[in-house]
């Protein structure tokens, strides 16, 4: 998901932007902008992206036999 080809442009993970105070982005091209802004100068930087939290395993309703390799 972080390295897919078609990335929706967003200033919060653009290589030209730097985090500024109050959640704004300091863009080299446009000055202070919102993190959700976009422009034609967008350059994707995957290291600025934060992945979503991992999905939680739903364990209710599971028993130890569900994790056993022995035949019931």
Would you mind describing this structure in some detail?
The chain is mostly beta strands and 72 residues long. The protein has a domain at 1-48. The chain contains no helices and three strands.
How much helix, percentage-wise, in residues? under 10%
General shape:
elongated
Low-confidence runs of at least 5 consecutive residues: none
What order do the strands of the largest sheet run in, or round the barrel if closed? 1-2-3
CA radius of gyration is 21 Å
* Beta strand count: 3
Q: Quick check: average pLDDT?
A: 84
Number of helices, where a helix is a run of at least 4 consecutive DSSP H or I residues: 0
User: From N to C, what is the helix and strand string?
Assistant: EEE
Summarize the biggest pleated sheet.
3 strands, antiparallel
Kindly name the structural category.
Answer: mainly beta
Q: Percent of residues in beta strands?
A: 5-15%
Draw up the topology in text.
Blueprint: E1 17-19, E2 25-27, E3 31-33
Antiparallel strand pairs: 1-2, 2-3
Short description:
The chain has strands at 17-19, 25-27, 31-33. The chain has 72 residues and is mainly beta. It has a three-stranded antiparallel sheet, with no helix packed on it.
Structural features:
three-stranded antiparallel sheet, 72 residues, mainly beta, elongated, 0% helix
